[in-house]
Amino acid sequence: MAEANGSAPEWLSEEERSLWLAMNGVLTRLPQALDAQLERDGGLSYFEYLFMAMLSEQEHRTLQMSELAACTNASLSRLSHVARRLEARGYVRREADATDRRCTNAVLTEDGFAAVVALAPLHVAEVRRLVFEAISPDAVLPLTRVLEGIMDIVDPSGHVEPGR
Amino acid sequence: MAEANGSAPEWLSEEERSLWLAMNGVLTRLPQALDAQLERDGGLSYFEYLFMAMLSEQEHRTLQMSELAACTNASLSRLSHVARRLEARGYVRREADATDRRCTNAVLTEDGFAAVVALAPLHVAEVRRLVFEAISPDAVLPLTRVLEGIMDIVDPSGHVEPGR
DNA sequence: TGGTATCACTTGACATTTCAAGCAATAGGG
DNA sequence: CCCTATTGCTTGAAATGTCAAGTGATACCA
Does A24 map to a domain? Predict the structure, then answer.
């Protein structure tokens, strides 16, 4: 197969293809594995855990829905549905923002905080087991650069990390 | 926060946390971006495309459902639903295996093959733009090792790649 | 052979996510 | 001020994925 031009061949090389297949595997299997552990140990999906973990790191265990959307990489719609379910379980509370009543703040309740605290060590251990076991300390920084590079292109508007 | 022991601290270091956040972003945003391009250009989800792409690489455009499950990292159940939808669109056909009638073979039709052929260059270009732009040639092999290392732990039974 | 176990899916019910409106609050002209 | 546009979120319906149970075919053992 001839290449269209020098910089962007139409197909992937053998090495690129291997990388792409491996990435595919990780992209689909890793979230499932994280879901499984959190479901088993705490009855939460990975996304529900992430939702609450992000809140737990905030000053007042509070974030505006759209900030939460940015740092969990989710749509506002998805977030809204999840918030409703977590609210029903008593883990989260929603209240209109005092200064701009369009905005909704999600607040982690005591119960929700307790759930995160109980689950966090197990979750971190699982992340370590599944991910960091396979990454030598030297490889952490370069790999971070690669992933951030991908994010910059996939989502040029920029990924927000809430201040801790 | 004190560490529990030398080899497995309870929390992630600052660098590890950055990597983990970046990986989270890629894990959720990259599939969405790939979906978006394939949906736009061909009316297919990424998974549907993958399903058909794997078939298109086979000798007789045919794979047993469970082989397809292995190489797309999907459950048999999910595969079955997708096969039904693709069958309804005329892209795929299913037939019982002649020698073991428990097994089902999925076969890519002419229409399905044409769809893959039309879409493949666009998809590869998108994968290049989103992923390989961010990876220097030197980094391809090490990164592959890391991802394969993760897969070995996430799914010890081993990821199968169908012979081409 | 006959009976049970296992395999390879398929199916239907349920949960979740996405998509397209919809709604209330605020911002920004004229 | 008022009128429209925009923002920030919510909602309900449709698409999609997951889970548990079911089905038919084959393997295995007595």
Answer: no
